[in-house]
Amino acid sequence: GAGVSQSPRYKVTKRGQDVALRCDPISGHVSLYWYRQALGQGPEFLTYFNYEAQQDKSGLPNDRFSAERPEGSISTLTIQRTEQRDSAMYRCASSLANNEQFFGPGTRLTVL
Amino acid sequence: AQKVTQAQTEISVVEKEDVTLDCVYETRDTTYYLFWYKQPPSGELVFLIRRNSFDEQNEISGRYSWNFQKSTSSFNFTITASQVVDSAVYFCALPRGGGADGLTFGKGTHLIIQP
């Protein structure tokens, strides 16, 4: 009965580097979501998948952000050419179709 | 547009007191869900409840209860006989609306329970 897992839990990188954040959803969950949470704020939607199809990426801030879920299970959120303003907690959640979302522990990204 | 307002940024009470966290929302949908999540000091986001807008009956789960008032667009959360372990940030949320998946969250209320 594993929950949603994310790796790494903490990532420190230098400005301009690319980072890849991984999410492993609850087994059998159809939908997978990515959110970003700044300090003192609620999570903000980035993108989501049903199975392997990216259904909505309207929350991605710019084209440096991309996500994939090639086999309908594990997902990767990639940020290219990181900037200091990208520093935040990145959260992944999964759900059965049209049900409550269960969140992973998050990846704390710090861009120096 | 979808919006969730949690006007209380921080609440501090003494253990065993009852406390209510307010949530007011705006939605363009006629039917919708509402959610509460808890973020304890360890940082994870824990699902507490999902409520359908069809059902305005109050929900009770142990010391937790939720009061949904569609007429005032509010979905308030009450903790009875608070305990130190209830200390956390609590978020209210609703779907992004218009058939779009994903949630819109409020800014959260930081609840501090003092021993």
Structural notes for this entry:
The complex is a heterodimer of chains A (112) and B (115). Chain A contains no helices and 11 strands. Chain A is an all-beta fold and 112 residues long. The mean pLDDT of chain A is 95. Helix content of chain B is 0%, strand content 57%. Chain B is built from no helices and 12 strands. In chain B, the strands form 3 sheets. In chain B, strands 2, 5, 6, 10, 11 and 12 form a 6-stranded mixed β-sheet that branches. A 4-stranded antiparallel β-sheet of chain B has the order 3-9-8-7, with no helix packed on it. A two-stranded antiparallel ribbon of chain B has the order 1-4. The model of chain B has no long low-confidence stretch (mean pLDDT 94). At the A-B interface, strand 4, strand 5, strand 9 and strand 10 of A face strand 6, strand 10 and strand 11 of B.
* Structural class by helix and strand composition of chain A: mainly beta
Tell me the major beta sheet of chain B.
6 strands, mixed
In whole angstroms, how far apart are the ends of chain B?
Answer: 41 Å
Number of strands of chain A: 11
Category from helices, strands and their pairing of chain B? mainly beta
Fraction of helical residues of chain A: under 10%
Report the sheet-strand fraction of chain B: over 45%
Q: Unreliable segments of chain A (pLDDT under 50, ≥5 consecutive)?
A: none
Basic shape of chain A:
globular
Largest interface: A-B, 26 and 21 residues
Mean pLDDT of chain A: 95
Mean pLDDT of chain B comes to: 94
Number of strands of chain B: 12
Share of residues in helices of chain B: under 10%
**Radius of gyration of chain A over all CA atoms, rounded:** 13 Å
Oligomer: heterodimer
Query: Main beta sheet of chain A: strand number and arrangement?
Result: 7 strands, mixed
Query: How much strand content do the residues of chain A show?
Result: over 45%
